[in-house]
Design a protein that fits this description.
Pfam families: TPR_11, TPR_19, TPR_8
Keywords: TPR repeat
TPR repeats: 198-231
Helix content: 55-70%
Shape: elongated
Region (Disordered): 25-54, 67-102, 151-186
Structural class: mainly alpha
Number of strands: 2
Protein name: Inactive TPR repeat-containing thioredoxin TTL3
């Protein structure tokens, strides 16, 4: 027997085994290796890709995994040529420093990580959204459809970190149940390749755009532009995504940049012309429709010319205070394509207010975009946009949104400091808001007479404000003056027919005065609008029963008179 000491394997032979053993056993060991690797090892394998140099860094951590299959397969073709090599002790992991090119790859990966972190954070700050969430060293998640993003925090916090693959498995409880499935719609997860090819990003953005996921498409187009800012198609596609989100002024800037990069880009000219048409800039729309070439239809220029004619007639009718004509011309301009133009929407809502159709005025402005004030002042004439803000403030005040009315009137004053009408609307909004607040406090204190007087002061400033009328009706009802309460509720319903609170209050007051037929009519309208309201349904049933008794009693009286 030899007296030589047994040589302990060092584990370095794994580097030699790569060419023969690792390649041949890779397929057969993939499932078992994945089951024994920790999350950190999986993360390293994903980052290494097919780069052989990166295998040197993880050779010591994978040696045991590679060697295990041969131990269970004695007939493996390399079993007799390559003995099993156990994993090196933990102290020997740093025995071999990575080559220079491997270290270079690690530095590049770290740089990409930092770049994506900054890109995601900058995107959130600039767009005031939380759609991008950091997921790992070379990808990010784009969350699902965000819907309307008009409102948002102007200074969003940095994106929250998600649980990455580098966290050890021991951090989880061994018997912990899996997390519950998400209750919201599934999120969209798009992993960006480390190579970050801009064409692939554009293709991904196009797919999201076709699905109506405009926020996700925008994030992908933004990333493509950051990698290749001189491609006109990226800018034009980004403009399309912005249009889908209602951010029309930003879309205009992207289209202008696209045609600057490529002046003959017909699709960008056509998209820019469409934006100008929607925003009421008919002359600019005609210019770019003509420059769009084959992308433009002959009817496009005719539509833009029609919009210009309707806008001119609308201005003239407003000057003459012919509100029915104003309404007709504004609606015609909107039908022709100018659906987001302040110089069209403002006269339409103003005409509806003058005709005491407050509910229709609110509906007319319900879906209109709210542009950034500074950007709007650069794009539109300050006086024109100030007038739009002033009319919107009046609509808010008519709907009972008094705080929004005050804020809107203040914005109008900033847009055009010389506009006296904006100052008058601001004073009116403040007075009406103060009257409503005072009346509410008195009503809560049980001082119904004083609350009635406070609401009356607001109605002196705004005689047909539905909210103040309904609130005063509540005071009259508490004071037992049901007839006057019905009168105020009727006045409120004349300007806002769908005002459910006023209709319910009128129905209750009519029931207290035993006007059962009128009460039944209002209760039926309420049940039709809200079928699930059990309380209203009970009131309707009781009113119908009382109405039936009343008619029977009246019939008996008529029979007695005939006898």
């Amino acid at each position: 027997m030899s007296t030589e000491p047994e040589k302990k394997p060092s584990g370095c032979g794994v580097l030699i085994m790569y060419t023969g053993l690792f390649r041949r056993t890779r397929r057969s060991t993939s499932s078992s290796a994945l089951s024994t690797q920790t999350p950190s090892e999986n993360s390293k394998r994903r980052r290494s890709g097919s780069d052989e140099s990166s295998l040197i860094v993880t050779a010591t951590t994978t040696s045991a995994t590679v060697a295990k299959p041969n131990a269970h397969h004695p007939h493996h073709p390399h079993h007799h040529h390559h003995p099993i090599v156990p994993a090196a002790p933990p102290a020997r992991k740093q025995a071999h420093a990575p080559p220079a090119h491997a270290a270079h790859m690690m530095r590049m990966e770290s740089a990409i990580t930092r770049e994506l972190d900054h890109a995601i954070y900058d995107h959130q700050r600039s767009k005031a959204s939380g759609s991008l969430v950091r997921a790992s060293s070379s990808n990010f998640n784009v969350f699902g459809h965000l819907g309307n993003i008009r409102a948002g925090n102007s200074n969003p916090a940095p994106p929250p970190m998600t649980t990455t693959a580098r966290e050890p498995r021991e951090a989880r409880k061994p018997n912990a149940s899996p997390p519950p499935p998400p209750t919201k719609e599934p999120v969209l997860c798009r992993a960006l390749s480390r190579r970050l090819d801009p064409e692939e990003l554009k293709t991904m953005g196009n797919e999201e755009y076709k699905k109506g996921r405009f926020a996700e498409a925008l994030a992908l187009y933004d990333r493509a532009i950051s990698l290749d800012p001189n491609r006109a198609s990226y800018r034009s596609n980004k403009a399309a995504a912005l249009m889908g989100l209602g951010r029309l002024l930003e879309a205009v800037e992207e289209c202008k940049e696209a045609v600057r990069i490529e002046p003959s880009y017909g699709r960008a000219h056509h998209r820019l012309a469409t934006l100008y048409l929607r925003l009421g800039e008919a002359e600019k729309a005609i210019k770019h429709f003509k420059m769009a070439g084959d992308e433009s239809d002959p009817n496009d220029v005719m539509r833009a010319q029609a919009v210009q004619s309707h806008i001119n007639r609308c201005r003239e009718a407003r000057r003459l205070r012919e509100w029915h004509t104003v309404l007709k011309e504004a609606e015609s301009a909107i039908s022709a394509g100018s659906d987001s133009a302040p110089q069209v929407l403002a006269p339409q809502a103003e005409a509806l207010l003058k005709l005491q159709r407050h509910q229709d005025a609110e509906a007319a402005l319900a879906g209109t975009p709210i542009f950034d004030l500074e950007a709007s002042m650069r794009f539109f004439e300050p006086a024109s946009y100030a007038h739009f803000l002033m009319i919107r403030a009046q609509v808010d005040m008519a709907a009972g949104r008094f705080d929004e009315a005050v804020a809107g009137a203040q914005r109008a004053g900033r847009a055009d400091p010389n506009n006296r009408d904006a100052g008058a609307v601001l004073r009116l909004a403040r007075a009406v808001a103060a009257a409503r607040a005072s009346g509410n406090e008195l009503f809560k204190a049980g001082k119904f007479g004083e609350a009635c007087a406070a609401y009356g002061e607001g109605l002196q400033q705004e005689p047909v404000n539905a909210v103040l009328l309904c609130n005063r009706a509540a005071c009259y009802s508490k004071l037992g003056q049901h007839k006057r309460a019905v009168e105020d509720c009727t006045a409120a319903l004349n300007v806002r027919p769908a005002y459910a609170k006023a209709r319910l209050r009128r129905a209750d007051c009519n029931a207290k005065m035993k006007r059962w037929e009128a009460a039944v009519q209002d209760y039926e309208a309420l049940v039709k609008a809200a079928p699930g309201d059990e309380e209203v349904a009970r009131s309707l049933a009781e009113a119908r029963a009382q109405l039936k008794k009343q008619r029977q009693y009246d019939q008996v009286d008529d029979d007695d008179e005939d006898a």
